[in-house]
């Protein structure tokens, strides 16, 4: 039986090493209470491929504002590397819960880039 894919995915690449960012802690939250409070939906770690499968189950996603918080400081400390950004927050809006969303993060100790992937 094939695993059910999540409607929301992320992939973190360590551009300093050219490898996937394995073991990076991240948290998915949704803005609730008319934009007053973040509610944590899931806390997890990236796998050996730098991905975090199953962020949301099918049917769990609804229109709204979401945030992925990546613990970049913890990731770099485990590798004995100083870094400039202690965490990265990527805030995005989902308007159509029937679509799939992919949020990649390209990461180095001194910079990061993100975009809406496919």
UniProtKB/TrEMBL annotation:
Pathway terms, separated by semicolons: Purine metabolism; urate degradation; (S)-allantoin from urate: step 2/3
Annotated Pfam families: Transthyretin
E.C. code: 3.5.2.17
Domain Transthyretin/hydroxyisourate hydrolase: 3-117
Top-level EC class as recorded in UniProt: hydrolase
InterPro entries reported in the protein's UniProt record: Hydroxyisourate_hydrolase, Transthyretin/HIU_hydrolase, Transthyretin/HIU_hydrolase_d, Transthyretin/HIU_hydrolase_sf, Transthyretin_CS
Gene Ontology molecular function: any one: hydroxyisourate hydrolase activity
One of the protein's GO biological processes: purine nucleobase metabolic process
Annotated localization: Peroxisome
Binding residues for substrate: 11, 51, 115
GO cellular component, one term: peroxisome
Catalytic activity reported: 5-hydroxyisourate + H2O = 5-hydroxy-2-oxo-4-ureido-2,5-dihydro-1H-imidazole-5-carboxylate + H(+)
Family: Belongs to the transthyretin family. 5-hydroxyisourate hydrolase subfamily.
Function recorded in the entry: Catalyzes the hydrolysis of 5-hydroxyisourate (HIU) to 2-oxo-4-hydroxy-4-carboxy-5-ureidoimidazoline (OHCU).
Binding partners and assembly: Homotetramer.
Protein name in UniProt: 5-hydroxyisourate hydrolase
